[in-house]
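Reading a protein record of the kind used here takes little practice once its layout is understood. Each number in the token line that follows is a code from a learned vocabulary of backbone shapes. One such record is shown here in full, so that the layout can be seen directly:
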Amino acid sequence: MSQKILIVGAGFAGVWGALGAARVLDGAGVRSSDVEITLISPKPELQIRPRMYEAEPQKMAAPLLPLLDAIGVKYVEGSVDGISVQDRTVSVVSANGQQHSLAYDRLLLTSGSKLSRPPVPGLEHAFSVDRIEDAVELDNHLDKLAKLPASPARNTVAVVGCGFTGIEVATELPKRLREKFGADAAIRVVVIGTQEEIGPDLGANPRPFVAEAFASLGVETVLGSGVVAVDADGVRTASGQRIEASTVIWAGGMRASPLAAQVSSNLDPLGRVEVAPDLRVPEAPHVFVAGDVAKALTDDNGRYALMSCQHAIVMGQFGGHNVAADLLGVPTLTYRQPFYATCVDLSEWGAVYSEGWDRQIKLTHAEGKARKQMINTQWIYPPAPNRAEALAAGNPQASFG
């Protein structure tokens, strides 16, 4: 009977985890009949989540079956709704609602994160760009608005959240709205945040460029007062300000998949598992965790990975490598990712690209935009379904030295 590696989730960490695990088995000469790798997800695709703020979100998915076939990884369609670390099984619900159980010898949990939705009254009226389905729903809504008579509320979008997603959505909206509503439409985009400054996690260096882009594009800010109520016609802030808007977009931060709590009780405030240096769960040594569900040190200076594709890809490589290496009884690798870069898309203004945790500015305006387009259209996509190329992409030690 073959041994089984299960990978839960087909986000960035899951896809590169499959590449990493397959690479280890290939290098050891292990046949798929002896060790079986299975990837479980609702659809055989990688949603390119960092691009959901762009136009045509329905195109932001990369098919996975040819790639998985090339590296000998099985695919199971379904959603995991339960994990038993005692029995070493996962419960899978298929698209038609049928439930079945899969056993594993080693598990790599890469179930990602979802948009945090706090108990704000009326939040069901808000749109998001969390998944393709959400972004398409927003796009369809804007198309419907375009058929209505112009009014201040129709032409206003309130973006709740002033972090990376809120900034990129807000700066892209003026162009997208004018394409839909007409070049002469009086567009109003308002970013609302509880923090006193835009981009609180960006640091001091990129922030002036974001402010410059906002001014150039006409994006307004309402800071220091969060949204306390949402309805179909706008939002109300804690300070009592009312903003009439036919479109509200919620970009209020992320929360790790609830499956994290089923493999560990040691979670951080974002719901992420506190993992060992090799991404193993100390309480369940046969389980490894990578991506947005893992709180993992990136270096020896106390810095932790962020919920980003940049960290998820490399963590996936390490997690895939380690889950297979551990099964074969060979040493695992300590996850390290000392290189860190930030690239914030600011639409027609350009983009700002920085390197290091202190975010030293390297590229801005058109040069920054060129880098962002390279990242968004090439670097974060899976490799071609060529076995040698795909296995090479799973090498954790080739990413950031």
